[in-house]
# Entry
Amino acid sequence: MKKITALFICLFCISCLFAQEENLNPVTGFPEIEDKPFALFNEGVSAAQITRIITQDERSNFVWQDYYMGMFFEVQTANMQPYNSILRLTAYYPIYHTFNGMKQIQTQMFLYGLDLFYGVMFESDMWKYVGFKWAIGPHFAYNMTDEWHHMDAGIGALLGAELPLEKKWTIIADGLASLDYGNFGSNRKIMPYNVVWQYQLGIGFRYSKKGINTYSYIK
# Structure
């Protein structure tokens, strides 16, 4: 019994010793978080292609394709355990529209598209000189066209690379693909689609005083 009591006393003393060495928060009494979470902000230009299909049994499918150009803005977290996340918002303007491969003339000037993606992000790197990130999560898109107010919702996947140009500057290159249900908009009763998907490609940059690049191309 005396040996067990002595062992508990030793363990208690060791734990107290380590607790004193840790940097404790004076308010909570818990160990201070040294690598505190923060947000990174990315921006750039993006291009997208949206494909909408109504399948046909006795003839070729009806296929609409829209091409967009625009700008994206991303917010991604850092030092969030166990995984970081990313929120991507893109504003688009249509530049080309086809039906079964034939160009369609745009009749309105004020047409646009909005795209929103949120995903849990996984990260890796290649010797700190190239960073990779991929994310999967819900996707939502709104597109105002000559015919309809399209609202699509589904699942998307993002794949990107980060190139540390300088200590505070990073080049961003990423792509997004999504598979959506395309019948939430005004087309749902008259022209419901069987399949809707889209691809996005973007290139941009990030300037951050907190997200310092340990290694960079320009010293």
